[in-house]
Amino acid sequence: MFQQARRRLILPFVLPQLILYTLVMFVPLALTIYYSFTNWQGHGNPKVWVGLKNYNVLLKDGNFHNAVENSIRLTFIGGLLLFVPAMAIAWALQQPLRGKRFFSFIILAPVVIAASVAGLIWKWIYNPSQGLLNPFLERIGLEHFAVPWLGSPRWALTAIIVASVWHGVGTWILLISAGMDRIPPDLPDAAKLDGAGDWQVFRTVTIPLLWEVLRILLVLWIIQALQAFTFIFVMTGPVAVGGPLGSTDVMVTYVYRIAFNDFKWAYGSALATAMLGAIFLLSLMVNRITMRETVEY
Question: How many CB atoms lie within 10 A of CB 178?
Answer without folding.
Answer: 11
